[in-house]
Amino acid sequence: MDVSQKIKSLIAYNLENEDISFDKEYQKTFENEGLRKSEYILNILSSNNETAKEDFSEYLLVSIGGADGSEAEHLLKSTKIKKAILVEISDSAANAAKEKSKEILDKYGKELRVMQGDLTQRLEELIREMNDFKNTANNPGLVLSMQAVLHELPKRSPGFRLSVFFGQIFSVFNKNVFFAREPIRVERWPEIVEVKVGNATSGDLVKLANIINDKLSIAELETTAIANGYINIDSTLAVELLHKLIRSNSVNNFKYELGEQLTSIDTAILQKTIESHLGAATVTIEPTVTEGFKEAWRLHEVDVKDEHGSQLSFPNTHARIVAISINKQLPNDISKISRRSKRREKNEKQKSEINTISNRTDIRNYYRDNIEGVKSRFYVYGVGLGGFAGEYRELIQKKIREGVDVKILSLSPREEIFQIYFENQFYSLLGWKDFESGNGGKAQNDSKYLQDWVFEENLKILKEGGEKLIELRFYSSLPVGAIMIVDDTIFYSPSLVNNSDDNTTMVFEKEDKPYDKFNRYFDDLWASLNFSQSAIDTHILHSFNDRGCLIQSLRKRRRYKFKPEEIVENYGSFVDHAKHKLLYNELAPLFLQASSRNTKKEIEFIRSMEHVRGEAVEYIVDLGCGVGRHATILSAYYKVTAIDISETEIEIASKTKGAIFQVGDIRDWDTAEKPDLVICMWSTLNYLSTANDLDKFIDSCNRNMDDTGVLVLDLKNPTKVINKSYKRRSYSYPYEINLKIDKKVINKNVLNAIYTYDIKNLQTGESVYVTDQEINKKYELEDIRIAFSRSFSIEHVYGDYSTNSAFDDNSDRMIIVLKKISASRDA
C-alpha cells in the first residue's frame, strides 16, 4: 500500500468542505451490524448464572447509538423483552430505525420507540419514559446497550458527564444489565514509543499526529521526527494516530473521526465509575485487539518500538464491558435474613462434605475429577502452581484442545510462573529460572526476553497467514492461598496439592459474591499482566481508603516553604525537607503508580548480593523503605525490617504482610538482630547532605550489621545530574495526575527539582494545582569511598540493577556494594 500518498491526502483535508451525503454513507457501514452485536448480548444473557434464570418479559431495552435499530430488532425478536427505546443522533439512521419499528410492531407485537437527537439533550426525556415503564411493570429491569458510543460522548455531546449519566440511568430500576464495546486507552505499551508506517516519511507522520493532537489535545509531549521514517511520540497519541490513519477509508471518514478520541476510555476508571452506581464486583472488562486493526496494521506495514529499540506488538484497542446487578437486596429484612440463612446452611453442609477429604491422594483425585468436569472455563490462581500445572498438564492440554477457556496464574514471587498456550500446546515456565533460547542455548532469566520471544513467534505466525497467536501472562505478588474455579464453583485451599502435610483441608464455596469478586479481579489481572511489575503496586493502591479526599487535603495543606539557595548557603541537612515532601505524604498512595521502576529487576539484583557475602542471607534491613516496594516482596524470601522517616508511607506499607515496618531515622537506627544485608535504595542517601548526616548513618550501619554484612547504596549517577525538564502523566482512580519536573544543579553539587502537579478528580471534576520541591546532594564515587573507608570497603560499583553492568559516566545509576570491615579482618 502507498501509505505516503494516503497520509498526504489526509494532511490536506479541508474542514470547510463538508460532504452532506457522508452521514448516509457512514451509517451504511453499520447496516445490520447490530445483528453481530446482539448475538454477543444474547450469549451472555443465556450463559451467565444470574441472567440465565431471569424473566426478561418485564425488562426495558435501551439502545443508545443503536444506528438503524437492527440490534434492538434482533433482541426484541430473540428475547421476552417487549419494549425498547433507541436514542440515535444520526438523521438517516434514526429514520431507518423508525421504519423498522413498524415492522417490529406488525411482526412481533413489540414496541421500538425511537428518540432522535443528542443523548445529553434527550436524557431527561429518556429517564422520564423509563420511569413510566417502571410504573406499569411488575418487578421491572433494564438492559442497556451502548456499542462504541461512550468514547464519542465527551466530544460530541455537549455537557455529557459519565458519572452523572450512569448515576441517573441506573437509579431507575433495581435490576440493571449493561453491555458496551469501546475503543480504549493504550495498554501494554510504554509512555513513549517510536512508530513507522509503511513508506510514509517521518515528517508527514509528525504533521498528521499534530493535526490529531491539535484537535483532541491528547499529549503534551512534542512528536519528533527521527531517522528511517520513525517518529518519537506519546503512546496514547500513537494509537490514536494509527486508528485514524490505518482504519480511515476516505478523507471524509478521517474528518469525521477527528471529532472524537478513540483512546479516551480508561477501563479501570470506567469500571470504578459503573460500580460506584451498581455496586462492587458487578463489572467484567475484557480487553482485546480487533481483527480489523490487526489486518490494517499488517496492510500498512506498521512497526512500533520502545525507546530502547525493542519491538512492540499490537496494543489492546478495544474492550467488552459487561455489568450485571440484578440481585440487589430488597428492603425486606425478613426475606434478606431468610436468604442468608439458607445460603449459610448450604455452605456449611458443602464444607462439611469437602473437609472429609483428609489426605493428599484424595485431594489430588478431587481436583482431577473437577478438572475433568470442566465444560466452559477453568481458572486457577495461588501459590505453588508450578507443581500444580505440571501434575495436571495433560488434563489442561486436553481442555485447551476441547476449546475450554483455560487461564492459570501464579501470584507468588517465589515461583513467578509463565504460562504460554498456543492451540494444542501448553507450556509452563517458572520465573527466576533459566529460559533456554533458540540461539545457541543462551540462558535468560529476564521476563523481557520471554516477551520478545513471544513477539517474534507471533510475527512468524502472522507472516505464514495464521491468526491464532500465542498468549503470555505473568505476574508476581505476595504468597496467598490457592483458588481453583471450575465453571461457577470455587475451591479454596490453604496449601493446595504441593503441601507435605497429609492433613491439608479444603474449603468449598458456591456463593455469587465470592465468585463474582474472584472472577472480576482475575480478569483485571489477566488484562494487565504484560506491563505489571508486582502485585504490591495494586495492593497498596487499593489499600488506601481515603482516596476521595486527596484534593481537599492538598488544598488545606500547610506548605513547607524554603529557598534552595538558602539551604545550600547554610548547608543544613536535607532530611527535614524530605519529611515534608508531597510524594512522601499526601501523594504517598500514588507513589507506585507514578513510578516507572522495574521492581522485579531490582529484587533480583538485591537477591544476588548473597554472592558478594559468600553465604546465605537471612535477615535484611531496608533503610528508606518508602511504601515497601522492595521490603514486602523480599519478605517472601528473608526476614525483613524496613525503616522510613515518613509516617504516612509506613502506615501504607504496614497494610501489607511479611516485613516489619518502623517509623525511624536512617541516621540513627537499631535492630535486635544483626542484619546480613542492608539496602538503601533509590537515592535515599542523597538526602544526607552533611558530613554529620553521613557519619551517623555509617556508625548505625557499622554498629548493627553482622561482621560479614553487605551494604548496598543506590545513588544518582553524579555525571547525569544535569539541568533538564520533563513531563509525566499517570492515572490512579479517580485521579488524573499531570506532573512536570524541572531539575537544575545549584552550587555544583546540589540538585534541586521543582515538581508541579496538576491533579484532577475524573469523577467530580475537581482539580488542584500544587508545587513541591526536592533537594539532593550529589555524591561522587570518591566521596563515598573516603567517607565509608574506616568501616566498609567497596567491593563492586554497578551502573544498573545487574551484576553485569559496569559503572561509567553514561550509567543510569551508581550502585555501590560495600562489605563491612570486621574486627577479625582488621587483625
Examine the coordinates and then state which fold CATH places here, giving the name of the CATH topology of the largest domain: Endonuclease, Chain A
Q: Over all CA atoms, what is the radius of gyration? A: 29 Å
Span between termini: 77 Å
Q: What's the domain count?
A: 5
Query: What would CATH call the architecture of the largest domain?
Result: 2-Layer Sandwich
Structural class: alpha/beta
| Percent of residues in beta strands | 15-25%
Organism: Granulosicoccus antarcticus IMCC3135
Keywords: Methyltransferase, Transferase
Enzyme class: transferase
Pfam families: Methyltransf_25
Summed up:
Helix content is 37%, strand content 23%.
Q: How do the strands and helices of this protein lay out in sequence?
A:
Elements: H1 3-11, H2 22-28, H3 33-47, E1 59-64, H4 70-78, E2 83-88, H5 91-108, E3 111-116, H6 119-136, E4 141-147, H7 153-156, H8 162-169, E5 176-183, E6 192-197, H9 202-216, E7 224-225, E8 231-234, H10 235-246, H11 251-257, H12 267-278, E9 283-288, H13 291-299, E10 302-306, E11 318-325, H14 333-354, H15 360-372, E12 377-382, H16 385-391, H17 393-401, E13 405-410, E14 417-422, E15 425-430, E16 435-436, E17 443-444, H18 447-463, E18 471-473, E19 482-486, E20 489-493, E21 507-509, H19 512-528, H20 535-543, H21 550-556, H22 564-570, H23 575-579, H24 591-594, H25 599-607, H26 610-613, E22 619-623, H27 631-634, E23 639-644, H28 647-653, E24 660-663, E25 677-680, H29 691-704, E26 710-716, E27 724-732, E28 735-746, E29 750-761, E30 767-777, H30 781-788, E31 792-798, E32 813-820, H31 823-826
Parallel strand pairs: 1-2, 1-4, 2-3, 4-5, 12-13, 22-23, 22-25, 23-24, 25-26
Antiparallel strand pairs: 5-11, 6-8, 6-10, 7-8, 9-11, 12-19, 14-15, 14-18, 16-17, 19-20, 20-21, 26-32, 27-28, 28-29, 29-30, 31-32
Helix pairs in contact: 1-9, 3-4, 4-5, 8-12, 9-10
